[in-house]
Amino acid sequence: MRKIKSSKKIGVFITAMSMLLLTACGDAKESGGSSKDGELMKAKLVTNWFAQPEHGGNYAALKQDFYKEEGLDMTIEPGGPQISSTQIVASGKAQFGYTQAEDVLIARDKGIPLVAIGAIFQKSPQVLIGHEGALKDFKDLDGKTVYTAPGSGYWEYIKKANDLEVKDMAYTGSLATFIDDPNAVTQGYVTSEPYVLEQDGVKTDYLFIHDSGFETYANVIFTTEDVIKDNPELVQSFMKATTKGWEYYRDHSDEINPFLKEKNPDLSMELMDYGAKAEEELIFGGDAKEHGFGYMSDERWTMLQDELLDLGIIKKKEDVSKIFTNKYLGE
To answer: Does the keyword Transferase apply (predicted)?
Structure first.
C-alpha cells in the first residue's frame, strides 16, 4: 500500500524498485550496540514508505513492547519518496531496512554488502492493473499503454518473456490517466489500488507480478554483513520480536490499525482493513506455511539472480548463501 492519487481520493502506493548509486558502508556500530547491565540496545528500522498495513507487524511489535521484551530500544523510521532504506542502512545510520529482493542483489552487485534476513511477503503484492475485461493474461498487455516505474526489473522481465510491444509510460503516482484511458495498464499493490479504484467506481482486473515467473520477495528485511558479524544477538532479538509482531498483527490488525493511523493520518480505517485482509495469505502462505514467517529459499534467490543477470541489471553472480540467511528466523 503506497501513496497514490486518483481523480477523487488519495490512497497509498509507490514502487520500491531502486536503481541506486549507493554510498559506501559506514560504521554500523553508530546506531546500536550490545546490552550492558540490563540496558536496552538501541536499534532502528527504516521502512520503504509511510506507516501502512504492509509494515503492520513491526508496528505491532513496537506497540505491544515485543522489541522491549527482547532487550531493544526500537525506533521505526518511515520511508518516503526521497528516502532510501538501502542507503541509510549501508551508511550505518540504521541497522535494519525494508526493500525488495532485487534491490539487495543490485546493491551487492555494486559492492554494498547487504544481507536479507527475512521476507515479509512470500508472494509480492505488486500487480499490473487493467480495466475490467481487458487484462486476463500477460499476453493481453501487448499494445497497451503501461505505467511503471522506470527501470523496474519485473517489467523488463515480463516484456521479454511475453515478447510485448507496448507504450511505456513513467508511473507518477496518479491514477487519473489510467482511469481516463481504457487501453491503459498501471502498476499497483493488491492491498491498495483495487480498493481505491473501486471506490471511484472503476472496475478492474489485475495480474500478480509473481505469476509472470518473476518471483521476487517483497518487503525484504535486510541488514549488513558488519551488523551480523559484530552484533548477531541484536539481529536475533530483532527478528524474534518482529516475527511475534507479525503474528500478532495477523490476528489483531483491527487493534493495531489505529496505531498505524497515528503514524500516518492519511490512511483510512477502511483501506487499512482491506489491506490487512488482502495481505494475509501473501505473507503467511507459500513457503511460510511450512517453514514459518519470513522464510526464503535458495531456489528463489538463485532464480531471481539469474533473471537479473539475463536482463543485464546485475553483472556478477555470487553464492546466494552470502545474499540471504534464515538463521535468525523463529524462536
So the answer is: yes
